[in-house]
Amino acid sequence: MQVHHIGYLVKRLKRSEEAFARLGYTVEREVCYDHVRDVNISFMKNGEYRVELIEPAGKTSPLYPLLKNYKNSPYHICYTVEDLEASKRELENDGFMVIQDTQVAPALDGRNVVFMVSADIGIIELVEREM
Ligand code: NI
User: Fold this and answer.
1) Does pLDDT of 131 surpass 80?
2) Domains, the chain
3) How remote is the CA of residue 92 from the centroid of ligand 1, in Å?
4) Ligand 1 centroid, distance to 17 Cα (angstroms)
5) What is the dihedral of CA 80, 70, 116, 124, to 10 degrees?
6) Distance, CA 79 to ligand 1 centroid (Å)?
7) Does the pLDDT of residue 60 top 70, yes or no?
8) pLDDT-derived band of residue 46, with 50, 70 and 90 as boundaries?
């Protein structure tokens, strides 16, 4: 599986963008509001490396409580897969657990994503390949 991005949970997205820009990252996708998760999301790239900056839009965002553990730090790595449902089943057989089942990701052109967790490596995200 190829790495698509590293997801950072951030408190103030604009300031995080500035800090990443200082390190040579450029904005790949401008800030997009994700109404499914009530978060603001942007993507930045530095060579082959892509980061996703995720800022909970308010205290009611389902991701807001995660700020306690992951403020301004990476919290998931996302992998591109050919067949989302098949990869999900295979990983489930290998002990990964679904924590957020298949959902549309507005910030990724509406591609489907699923979040899973492993006791050994934490949270991962799978995204279906671009058509
Ligand atoms: Ni992500």
Assistant:
1) no
2) 2-128 (3.10.180.10)
3) 19
4) 16
5) 30
6) 9
7) yes
8) very high
